[in-house]
Every structure is written in C-alpha cells, then in structure tokens.
Amino acid sequence: KVLDNSQQHSMMVIENESQEVKTGDAIFIPSNFKHGIKNLGNEVLEYITANAPLFSKEYEAALWPSAPNK
Known about the structure:
three-stranded antiparallel sheet
C-alpha cells in the first residue's frame, strides 16, 4: 500500500512507529501491518491510497460496513 499525502502534514503510524509526513511524501505499508494517519493541520486532510491486489467487494464491506451504495 502506498500513501501519497497530498495536503498539509500529518502523522503516519505503522504498527508501533510514528513519523510526521508532509505534502509529496509517499509511504509503503507492508501487508497486514496496523496503520493509521492523523491530521496535524487545521484543514481537512486529503490523501490518496492504492493497494494490490484489489480488495474484493466482501473484504471492502467488512472494512467499511457503512460505505454508501454506488
């Protein structure tokens, strides 16, 4: 999984490690690692993620059960 932090700066947490990241940074997150991102700015944090292989619809539904229907 790669994260492109496209706005401001934030704190990326992967397992028990954390590091401040800023616009233009890309982060590799190994499969099955617990991770999260915290906005350190005052505006809405926007970021882009990608993963491979693609999540199945069932897996996505388990991760985000309240996702809007398309």
